[in-house]
Every structure is written in structure tokens, then in C-alpha cells.
Design goal:
The complex is a heterodimer of chains A (about 325) and B (about 325).
Chain A lengths: L7 E12 L2 E13 L4 E5 L6 H9 L7 E10 L2 E2 L5 H7 L4 E4 L13 H12 L4 H14 L5 H4 L9 H13 L5 E5 L7 H18 L2 E6 L2 H7 L2 E6 L2 E7 H7 L3 H9 L48 E4 L2 E3 L14
Parallel strand pairs in A: 3-8, 3-9, 6-7, 7-8
Antiparallel strand pairs in A: 1-2, 1-4, 4-5, 9-10, 10-12, 11-12
Helix pairs in contact in A: 3-4, 4-6
Chain B lengths: L2 E13 L12 E13 L3 E5 L6 H8 L7 E6 L2 E2 L5 H8 L2 E4 L13 H11 L4 H14 L16 H13 L5 E5 L7 H18 L2 E5 L3 H7 L2 E6 L2 E7 H6 L4 H9 L39 H5 L5 E2 L6 E2 L11
Parallel strand pairs in B: 3-8, 3-9, 6-7, 7-8
Antiparallel strand pairs in B: 1-2, 1-4, 4-5, 9-10, 10-12, 11-12
The chains are: A alpha/beta (about 325), B alpha/beta (about 325).
Keywords (chain B): ATP-binding, Nucleotide-binding, Transport
InterPro entries (chain B): AAA+_ATPase, ABC_transp_ATP-bind, ABC_transporter-like_ATP-bd, ABC_transporter-like_CS, Oligopep_ABC_C, P-loop_NTPase
Protein name (chain B): Oligopeptide transport system ATP-binding protein
């Protein structure tokens, strides 16, 4: 992996929502880097803040009630938080593109696929309509849609779920972004189709040399496609490491609990080791470590001290008091 | 063990709108098209397949929530296919269902107490006993008795699924059909609910038909597994047998598509091309031939039969799998 300038660097990001019922700290202090051409996985359960992280990067946080209260998002050396909406519009698409979770609702049902593809291309590239159409054909070919010439004239409802997701990916790729954010891109799909789409992501990445931030709750997907992983819990990173390393030497009790919760086909049947309890309410987080109420290894100090994230091994960060003594604290 | 439920060649066809006004043939969507199997008391049968393969419809036909177009259903040796009215109502006591969506399957205007005791009221169980049972049910599914006066919106997804489970157990059924009971839940909560369902099976001696698309969950909970494709059963057998030694090419592809949680394990992956064909217009011959990597001429013309493929009772329907004849 290159240790050159990272493509994206998120520093101490805090995104809060100010609601009538209180302040929801959806993202509460995360740091990560994405190098060019690399795939970063962000894993967590619903409400852990992974989608909000993506929205924050793209400047799509609905405001009010949401607000990025602290932090920096450096993309190619520039802080995106200082950009105006107009400048952001130039970045969304040609620089950073996004694929959403639900292929059934993220395409406009009343326009043909051609229209939706051309809209993006024409908005960002200096092309004639004819050139743009050629580009659209090329893109559909690239993502593996058979008979693209006829398919261009179809409406979204004429495509299956997997095909719609391919169209979404084609739209996202239309302006050659250097970073693609995929928010649960395969969650709504069947396993056989999921395998196709993951294969497609891997191929696209190789061919176009783009970085991918893959947001998912499925550790299986992570192990298939990601180089590095960040595990999130209640708006904070719990653990951050290389994928292989995480699966072999994961340390945070939440990461381990998550892995033990998944039934495995290759293993004999044993009782699943579930994590007790439920994720905390983000409006009233427990004092101390937010995972403490569900943690098996909870100590007295966990209930009062919120741990810092620490490097326990090379490029392996854990936010847990069990590893408080290891190596150095990472100051942010 | 005795056979609790047996279905013989059940079919469920839904009529479609006739697009050609002059055509006399009425088009139908064959959601379930000739499925037969039986399930022993106390066992868990997993029913897997992609969306649209007819697994949920099959589950509903077994409960007689849907009237089968053809075929017969036997419950404890009795043919229940033609049961109606009072007789069917009595039968429902013994067969219950847990639904997928814990958000939509509870009445938002009823308290948990009302929801769980409603089935008991219908079957005229006296009030004191209802209260006793309610307490016990809440206890076994891991809720507290102070929860009973609350409404569904006050609960999380996992808790709601627990309420759904408590409701389905209120009448002490023998057979519970679980239609994707954990797929709407987060991983950590999913494990809690699966463990709960396993405990309940032991405690109440339940028989489960577990409908799911998640192959690892089915592997974990089931004794036997049935794989469906476009309304037909393509393979059925003991879980260990089917997962380690899948005979049907579809089962092989399906299993190879499951993402491995261990990144060090390189997997031979069979990527199926194309999508599931529409059940309204299924391919001729073997329904899988359009996506099958081994398809040959015979597959396009002849429908394969479900046949025994191992001495342990594993069955598969493919032209190229050798039949095992018992001697």
C-alpha cells in the first residue's frame, strides 16, 4: 500500500443532529484515511453512524437539524467543509460518487435510464449529446448490462434489482470519480446477484483505479472486498485495521461479538454467542464507553472513562480500556 | 418420530391479467409449482431460495392462509386440504406463523398484552389463565412484565420480533412457520433471536419450517434443508449433506455465492450469469437451464424429476446427477 498523500482524510469528524428530543450524536469523533485505489470498509449496525459519515463527506447532511460541529474532511488536500454548495456540486459526481442502498427507489421511475445517465454526464462533462450517448452505452457495457442499446430506452421498472444496481453503478462511474462511496450496495440483493455485483466492484476498481468506501453491515462482504476496515459503534470507531489482521487478531469486544454472532457454514453447530442488550440511544449515551453496558469484559473503569483510540499493533487501532496500556495513544 | 406435516405436489397459481384480449388461455403466475416434502415432529426444515422463488407462498399454502390450486396437505396424518370454517379455525391452534417484518406485523394500536392474549381470547381461555400464560410467555421470550401495557412503537426491532414470537406461541402450537424471522434485524440482535428460537424449540417441543434467504442462518438452525428455484424444489436433504456435498448446480452456485467471513479462505466461486427468470413466464424444460453452467440440449426440452441422489435421502432434480437406487 502506498503511504503517499491519502486521497481522503477525515479528521475528528463530529456530525450531530439537533432535534426537539435532544442532541443526537450520530457521528462523534472519527478519523480515517483512504489511499488512492484502496477499498475501505465501514462496518456497523443500524444507527452506528456509518451512513451519516458518508453523507457528511458528500456534504449531504440535511441542515437543520444536522450539523457538522467539528472536524475536517480533506479530499485531495482540500477541506470539503469550507466549500460552498456550488463548489460541492462540482465535486459530487466527477470526484466523489455515491451508490445508494436501495436500487428500487434511488432511480427516478418516470425517466428512462438513458435520460438519467445523460443528465449526469452532460452536467459534468463537456460533451455533445451524441458523445454523451456513446459514453452511456460504453458505461452500460462496462457494468455488464446485456443489449445496452435497447436497454437505454427502458424505464427503471423494466430492470430487475441487480440490473438497477448496475445502472446506479454506471451513473456513479459516468464521470470517472476517484472515490466511490457505496452505501450498502448489495444489501437489497439476493446472494447470487450480490456475488455478481461484488465481482463488478472489484473489476471496476482495477480498471479505473478508484478508491472505494464500502459501507455495510455484512462482515462477509467486508472480507471479500475491503483492504482495510473500520468498525463503528454508536457514532465512534471501535476498531480500525487491515482486513486480514482484523479477522485474525481483532481485539475490540464488539468486533469479536459481531464475528461470533454470525452463523458460519464451515463450522459445526454451536450456540451462537450473541451480544446481549441493544445498541444505546444516541441521545443519551451511557457515561464512559458506549459499549460498556453490553460488553462481556466490562470493568469498573469502563463505566466512567471513555477510552481513547490506541494503536495496539502496526496500523491496528482499538478503542477499549482493555488495551489501555498498549503502545501509544493517538492524539487527534 | 412421526410425520407432522406432509405436502404432496402442492401448486399455487395466481391468475394474471390477460394481455391478449382474443386469447382464450388465461395466463397464470406459477408461484409454487409442484412441491412435495414431509416434516417430522420436532425437526427444523429450512426452506431457502432467492426472492421470488415461492418459498413464502409455499409457507402460506401449508398454513392454509392461501388456498392451494392443486395438491394435498396432511397434518398429523389428516388431510386438511379441504378444511374450512370452524374446522380450519381449530386447526390454526396447532400451526402458527412468525412474520418477517417486526414493524408491520404488530397492530400499532394494541398493547403488547392485547396482542399476545388475543389468540387466547379467541379460543376462550379463561382470564386468569390468560394472565398466567402472558406472564410466562413474556418471561420466556426475554421481556419483562412491565412491558405488557406498552405499544409496539416503544420497542426496538429485536424486541418486536420477540413479541411476535410470544404471540405465535400463545396457543402452544406444534408447528411454527418462520417466514424470514431474523432478516430485518441487525447481526448482534439476529443472534439473540436465533438463540431464543432454539431454546423455545427445546422447551416447547416445536417443529419449525424456517424460511430464509440467508444460507448461514439456515445452516445453523435447520436439521434438513430444501432449496427452491422458480416454484420448484431442486434439492432437499440433511443440512450437513446438502452444504458439504450439494448435487444440484443451483445449490452449488447459491452456496458458493455466500461471502466468506474468513478472508484467508479462497473460495471457488461459481458466478451465475443473469437474473431469476420471471415466474410468469418460466423457461421450458429444466427451469434453471438459462443460468446453469452445465446446461445441454436435454435440459432445454425435458423437465428433470426429483430423484434420490445419496443413500441418506438427499434428493435433487437435475439430469446430470446420478440416481442412487437402493438395493
Amino acid at each position: 500500500m502506498t503511504q503517499d498523500a491519502p486521497l481522503l482524510e477525515v479528521k475528528n469528524l463530529h456530525t450531530h443532529f439537533f432535534t426537539k428530543a435532544g442532541v443526537v450524536k450520530a457521528v462523534d469523533g472519527i478519523d480515517f484515511k483512504v489511499n488512492p485505489g484502496e477499498t475501505l470498509g465501514i462496518v456497523g449496525e443500524s444507527g452506528s453512524g456509518k451512513s451519516i459519515t458518508a453523507m457528511s463527506i458528500l456534504g449531504l447532511i440535511p441542515s437543520p437539524p444536522g450539523k457538522i460541529v467539528e472536524g475536517e474532511i480533506n479530499f485531495k488536500g482540500e477541506n470539503l467543509l469550507n466549500k460552498s454548495q456550488k463548489q460541492m456540486r462540482k465535486i459530487r459526481g466527477p470526484e466523489i460518487a455515491m451508490v445508494f442502498q436501495d436500487p428500487m427507489t434511488s432511480l427516478n421511475p418516470v425517466f428512462t435510464v438513458e435520460k438519467q445517465l445523460l443528465e449526469t454526464i452532460l452536467a459534468h462533462e463537456n460533451m455533445s449529446k451524441k458523445q454523451a450517448k456513446e459514453r452511456a452505452l460504453e458505461l452500460l457495457n462496462l457494468v455488464g448490462i446485456p443489449d445496452p442499446e435497447n436497454r437505454l430506452k427502458n424505464y427503471p421498472h423494466e430492470f430487475s434489482g441487480g440490473m438497477r444496481q448496475r445502472v446506479m453503478i454506471a451513473i456513479a462511474l459516468s464521470c470517472n470519480p476517484s472515490l466511490l462511496i457505496a452505501d450498502e450496495p448489495t444489501t437489497a440483493l439476493d446472494v447470487t446477484i450480490q456475488a455478481q455485483i461484488l465481482e463488478l466492484f472489484k473489476r471496476m476498481q482495477k480498471e479505473l483505479n478508484m478508491a472505494i468506501v464500502m459501507i455495510t453491515h455484512d462482515l462477509g462482504v467486508v472480507s471479500e472486498v475491503c483492504d482495510r476496515v473500520m468498525v463503528m459503534y454508536a457514532g465512534k470507531p471501535a476498531e480500525f485495521s487491515e482486513t486480514k489482521h482484523l479477522f485474525e487478531k481483532g481485539k475490540h469486544p464488539y468486533t469479536l461479538g459481531l464475528m461470533n454472532s454470525i452463523p458460519k457454514i464451515t463450522h459445526d453447530k454451536q450456540k451462537l454467542e450473541a451480544i446481549d442488550g441493544v445498541p444505546p440511544d444516541l441521545r443519551s449515551l451511557p457515561k464512559g464507553c458506549s459499549f460498556a453496558p453490553r460488553c462481556k469484559h466490562v470493568m469498573d473503569s469502563c463505566l466512567t472513562n471513555d477510552p481513547d483510540i490506541r494503536e495496539v499493533d502496526d496500523d491496528h487501532f482499538v478503542r477499549c480500556l482493555l488495551y489501555e496500556d498498549s503502545k501509544k495513544a493517538v492524539t487527534t | 418420530m412421526s410425520t407432522l406435516l406432509e405436502v404432496k405436489n402442492i401448486k399455487k397459481h395466481f391468475p394474471l391479467k390477460n394481455e391478449n384480449f382474443f386469447s382464450r388461455e388465461k395466463p397464470v403466475l406459477k408461484a409454487v409449482d409442484g412441491v412435495s416434502f414431509s416434516i417430522e415432529a420436532g425437526e427444523t426444515l429450512g426452506l431457502v431460495g432467492e426472492s421470488g422463488c415461492g418459498k413464502s407462498t409455499a409457507g402460506r399454502v401449508m398454513l392454509k392462509l392461501l388456498e392451494p390450486t392443486e395438491g394435498e396437505i396432511f397434518f398429523k396424518g389428516e388431510n386438511i386440504t379441504s378444511f374450512r370454517g370452524e374446522k380450519l379455525r381449530k386447526l390454526r391452534k396447532d400451526m402458527q406463523i412468525i412474520f418477517q417484518d417486526p414493524y408491520a406485523s404488530l397492530n400499532p394500536r394494541k398493547t403488547i398484552e392485547q396482542t399476545i392474549t388475543e389468540p387466547m381470547k379467541i379460543f376462550n381461555i379463561p382470564k386468569e389463565e390468560r394472565q398466567k400464560k402472558l406472564k410466562r410467555l413474556l418471561d420466556v421470550v426475554g421481556l419483562s412484565s412491565y412491558h405488557k401495557s406498552r405499544y409496539p412503537h416503544e420497542f426496538s426491532g429485536g424486541q418486536r420480533q420477540r413479541i411476535g414470537i410470544a404471540r405465535s406461541l400463545a396457543l402452544e402450537p406444534e408447528l411454527v412457520i418462520c417466514d424470514e424471522p431474523v432478516s430485518a434485524l441487525d447481526v448482534s440482535i439476529q443472534a439473540q433471536v436465533i438463540n431464543l428460537m432454539e431454546d423455545l424449540q427445546d422447551e416447547f417441543n416445536l417443529t419449525y419450517i424456517f424460511i430464509a434467504h440467508d444460507l448461514s442462518v439456515v445452516h445453523h438452525i435447520s436439521d434438513r434443508v430444501a432449496v427452491m428455484y422458480l416454484g420448484e424444489l431442486v434439492e432437499i436433504g440433511e443440512v450437513a449433506e446438502v452444504y458439504q456435498n450439494p448435487k444440484h448446480p443451483y445449490t452449488q452456485a447459491l452456496l458458493s455465492a455466500v461471502p466468506e467471513v474468513n478472508p484467508n479462505q479462497e473460495k471457488q466461486r461459481i458466478i451465475l450469469s443473469g437474473d431469476l427468470p420471471s415466474p410468469a413466464n418460466p423457461p421450458q424444460g429444466c427451469k434453471f437451464h438459462t443460468r446453469c453452467p452445465y446446461a445441454e440440449e436435454i435440459c432445454r426440452t425435458q423437465v428433470p424429476k426429483l430423484k434420490k441422489v445419496s443413500s441418506d435421502g438427499q434428493m435433487a432434480s437435475c439430469h446430470f446427477v446420478k440416481e442412487v437406487v437402493e438395493t
